[in-house]
Design goal:
This protein has 115 residues and is mostly helical. It is built from four helices and no strands. The protein has helices at 11-20, 26-38, 50-78, 84-102.
Length: 115
């Protein structure tokens, strides 16, 4: 170790260092803390990016469309006669979702009312 210098610190800070340094000397502990803060490693990403959110939104729209397709076709397979207005409403929602999948317009949201 090279030349030594003196560092004047508040009493409370020295006590905090002493309470947390374990078997290290004060100098080793401060050096460890500085090295840890200055590491240039990229931390693990904890948040979704804008592209990931957009991709998730598109996947959810596709899933919702498939879900609606299934229930509409399932209702038709069973022969249940649903009111014409309800069927037209579902069809329009499906077409709107299909249009949203092709466009980049993010302002539209699909809402479905179950009766």
């Amino acid at each position: 170790m090279g030349e030594r210098r003196m560092l004047i610190m508040p009493k409370e800070l020295v006590k905090k260092i002493d309470d947390n340094r374990g078997d290290m000397t004060q100098a080793e502990f401060i050096d460890f803390l500085i090295d840890d803060q200055l590491k240039e490693e990229i931390k693990e990403q904890k948040y979704a990016t804008k592209e990931e959110i957009h991709s998730f939104e598109q996947d959810m729209k596709k899933l919702l469309k498939n879900f609606l397709d299934f229930f509409v076709s399932y209702g038709l397979e069973l022969g249940k006669e649903s009111p014409k207005t309800e069927f037209e409403e579902l069809t329009s929602k499906l077409q709107e979702l299909e249009g949203d999948l092709g466009s980049e317009d993010k302002s539209k949201e699909a809402t479905i009312k179950w009766k």
